[in-house]
C-alpha cells in the first residue's frame, strides 16, 4: 500500500519545498500557484481518483456473474490515468484491481503480458486487452446486457 503513495508524497514534498522557496523570496502568489499545481499532480497520481479497488479473485467472480470488464491498474501509471479520466463516470461500472495491492492481480497481468506487469490490462469476456483505447472500453460497457 505504501508503494502507491510514494509518487504523490514526493510531489507534495517537492511542491512544498518550491513554494517555501518562492514565498521566502518574496513571491507569495507564485508560491501558491506552484503549490496548487503540485497538489493537483499528487492527487491525479494517487489512488484517490480511481474507483475502489477489489482483489482479483473477487473481480473475476463478479465479472463472470454480470459481464462487466475488469481493469488491472497501478497508481502512477499515465495510461491507467488516461483510461480512468476518459471513461468519466462510466469508470465506476468496471471492476478495478490495483496490482500493487493484490499479488494475484499482478500475477494475472504477468500471465497475459509475457511476464510484464503492463497496465492497464482490461479483461472483457475472459479475453485480456493490454492498454486498450478508452473509447473501445466504453463501447464494451454499452454493449453489455
Amino acid at each position: 500500500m505504501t508503494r502507491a503513495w510514494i509518487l504523490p508524497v514526493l510531489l507534495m514534498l517537492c511542491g512544498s519545498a518550491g513554494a517555501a522557496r518562492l514565498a521566502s523570496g518574496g513571491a507569495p502568489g507564485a508560491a501558491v500557484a506552484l503549490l496548487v499545481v503540485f497538489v493537483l499532480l499528487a492527487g491525479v497520481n494517487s489512488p484517490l481518483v480511481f474507483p475502489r479497488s477489489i482483489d482479483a479473485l473477487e473481480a473475476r467472480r463478479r465479472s463472470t456473474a454480470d459481464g462487466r470488464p475488469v481493469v488491472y491498474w497501478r497508481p502512477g501509471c499515465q495510461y491507467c490515468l488516461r483510461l480512468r479520466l476518459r471513461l468519466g463516470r462510466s469508470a465506476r461500472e468496471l471492476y478495478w484491481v490495483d496490482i500493487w495491492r493484490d499479488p494475484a492481480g499482478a500475477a494475472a497481468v504477468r500471465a497475459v503480458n509475457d511476464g510484464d506487469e503492463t497496465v492497464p490490462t482490461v479483461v472483457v469476456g475472459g479475453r485480456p486487452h493490454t492498454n486498450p483505447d478508452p473509447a473501445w472500453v466504453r463501447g464494451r460497457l454499452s454493449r453489455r446486457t
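Strands lie at 70-73, 95-98, 121-124, 127-130. Helices lie at 6-24, 28-44, 56-66, 78-87, 103-112, 134-143.
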